[in-house]
UniProtKB/TrEMBL annotation:
Cited InterPro entries: Acid_ceramidase-like (IPR016699), Acid_ceramidase_N (IPR029130), CBAH/NAAA_C (IPR029132)
GO MF terms, alphabetically ordered: fatty acid amide hydrolase activity; N-acylsphingosine amidohydrolase activity
Keywords, ordered alphabetically: Disulfide bond, Glycoprotein, Hydrolase, Lipid metabolism, Lysosome, Secreted, Signal, Sphingolipid metabolism
Organism encoding this protein: Python bivittatus (Burmese python)
Name of the molecule in the record: Acid ceramidase
PANTHER family linked: ACID AMIDASE, ACID CERAMIDASE
EC number(s) given by UniProt: 3.5.1.23
Length: 395
């Protein structure tokens, strides 16, 4: 696990250095208003749909989707290994980490351990690589999520998934290497029991935790990374040392999407379950004012910011900073998103206008893999792959 620490420390150091050096965002632009339906240079295509049959044994559930995406998944796992290699410069250390990660996989809770094993055997990859891919995401994401309510009380939820910060920059075409490789791995998933949809999600093929999803008529859910000095990844180390009472955050979101049956229950689980690392959960319900950002430390909800339409709060926006604090000056996606929502106005809120907001730089940036739009009453989800040609903010 030493490489993880190195990568995380390098990332933190880089963020701090840049924070001192640069002040204003030179890439900001006027709010986009004609991006939807998606076309043009920032639209890179749509994603395919797959069914995950929860009636199958966990080891069988992902076989169809990872067979279809085998090449892409193997490329991403190799990229992750290459990145480690640039940090540790030792094939031997990588091999030893691979076997430690395989062991880590066996300590993960059911059904995730079994699903990950099934994926590894379906694509004939070392178990450790699939485990690394599944916990990788917990560490390197920066995102923007929005829950909003229109004037009729209908709820909408949308998110940009930004991934790959500091994981290698391709100088030739000025893009993040991992971000580019992840795009073909994005899929839309329909989780079913008894041939009926339980929830829908957009996700990476072979990633068993959930990052965005909708449960029809009940709630929508996304999670964003919370970089926090206190607490950080101590939970992950405790897990390695055998203290395993906390939850991996994307496993919690998956369990909530699969098994929670009300907005209140989802909110309670997301706010009160002990986690391995800090996180933001962005939850939308199916009724007026059901929408919130839950700011989590490992053990508690530090703050819950709710929609409050009577007092003019008809949206909540979360990037990767605590809602009660200003965002980092060099990474302010919050104010541009709020500014564009204000320009849109509550009367005009729709999936299309939310797509416009999420298409405005720097909310859209070079880390953006995809934009996902969720509508709870119809249980609707749509996902688009994104591109951000120059000039465009690197994050
Ligand atoms: C950048 O170039 C690499 C190959 O050098 C390619 O795989 C990737 O798709 C390119 N990215 C973009 C955004 O064009
Ligand atoms: C689901 O549908 C398929 C074919 O439509 C059928 O063979 C299968 O038995 C059904 N499964 C359940 C659990 O109802
Ligand atoms: C969700 O909200 C819609 C109205 O926006 C309503 O028609 C529907 O019955 C609600 N669904 C549930 C399960 O409450
Ligand atoms: C949801 O609950 C069922 C029944 O208790 C359980 O078998 C399943 O593993 C749970 N799902 C997750 C993702 O934890
Ligand atoms: C958006 O509007 C709200 C409410 O009027 C205001 O408090 C906020 O400062 C505005 N934000 C931006 C970035 O324009």
């Amino acid at each position: 696990m030493r490489a993880w620490v190195l990568v995380a420390a390098a990332a933190a150091a880089a963020l701090l250095t840049v924070a001192v050096v640069r002040a204003r965002d030179p890439y900001a632009e006027e709010c986009k208003i004609h991006e939807y339906p998606p076309t043009g240079p920032t639209y890179k295509g749509t994603v395919s749909n797959y069914i995950i049959n929860l009636d199958l044994p966990p080891s069988q559930r992902w076989v169809q989707v990872v067979h279809a995406k085998k090449t892409e998944l193997l490329i991403v796992m190799k990229t992750i290994k290459d990145i480690f290699y640039t940090f540790v410069h030792s094939r031997k250390l990588i091999a030893s980490m691979e076997s430690k990660l395989a062991w880590l996989g066996s300590t993960l809770p059911y059904p995730f351990n079994e699903e990950i094993k099934g994926i590894a055997s379906a694509v004939e990859a070392p178990l450790g690589d699939v485990v690394a891919f599944n916990i990788f995401y917990e560490i390197f994401t920066v995102c923007t999520s929005i829950v909003t309510e229109d004037t009729s009380g209908k709820l909408y939820h949308a998110r940009n998934l930004d991934f790959g910060l500091f994981l290698g920059w391709d100088i030739q075409n000025s893009s993040w290497i991992t971000t580019g490789k992840l795009k073909p791995l994005m899929v839309s998933l329909d989780f079913q029991k008894n041939n009926k949809t339980v929830f829908k999600s957009s996700n990476f093929a072979g990633y068993v935790g959930m990052i965005s999803g909708v449960k029809q008529g009940i709630f929508t859910l996304t999670m964003n990374e919370r970089f926090s000095i206190d607490g950080g990844y101590i939970g992950v180390f405790e897990w390695l040392l055998g203290q395993r009472d906390g939850w991996w955050m994307s496993f919690l979101t998956r369990t909530v999407l699969e098994n929670s049956t009300s907005y209140e229950d989802a909110k309670d689980k997301l706010a009160n379950t002990k986690l391995l690392a800090p996180a933001y959960f962005i939850l939308g319900g199916n009724k007026s004012n059901e929408g919130c950002i839950i700011t989590r430390s490992r053990t508690a909800a530090l703050n819950i910011k709710n929609l409050d339409t009577k007092n003019g709060i008809w949206y909540v926006v979360e990037t990767n900073y605590d809602p009660w604090k200003p965002p980092l000056v060099i990474d302010d996606r919050r104010h541009p998103a709020m500014n564009c929502l204000n320009h849109t106005k509550q009367e005009k809120i729709s999936l299309g206008t939310l797509y416009n907001v999420l298409s405005t730089k720097p909310v859209l940036n070079k880390l953006t893999v995809s934009t996902t739009l969720l509508e709870v009453s119809e249980g609707h989800i749509e996902t688009y792959l994104r591109d951000c040609p120059d000039p465009c903010s690197p994050w």
